[in-house]
Design goal:
Layout (H helix, E strand, L loop, with lengths): L1 E2 L20 E3 L20 E3 L19 E3 L9
Parallel strand pairs: 1-2, 2-3, 3-4
């Protein structure tokens, strides 16, 4: 588990992809607008919470994750 809530993060380091056994990643209440491509390496990730960030579209890296529970509440996601 890695909880990085409320840290005012603007960028997530690419090294996050090296945490291959990470099951839970909480990034609530930061300033993120995108994710590093290395997120696709997090094959064990089961829960990802990106609520209350600054995403305007769903990051394509999310589609490559097996994460059963991804949360994007309180972002300004464009739906088409």
């Amino acid at each position: 588990m890695l909880y990085l809530d409320e840290n005012q993060l603007i960028v997530l380091p690419t090294e996050i992809g090296q945490l291959k056994f990470l099951h839970t990643l909480d990034l609530l209440f930061n300033q993120l607008t995108n994710l590093p491509l290395t997120m696709a390496h997090l094959k064990a990730l089961e829960s990802l919470d990106l609520s209350s960030n600054r995403f305007t579209q769903l990051p394509p890296e999310i589609a490559q994750l097996r994460s059963g529970a991804s949360h994007f509440c309180k972002n300004t996601i464009e739906t088409g």
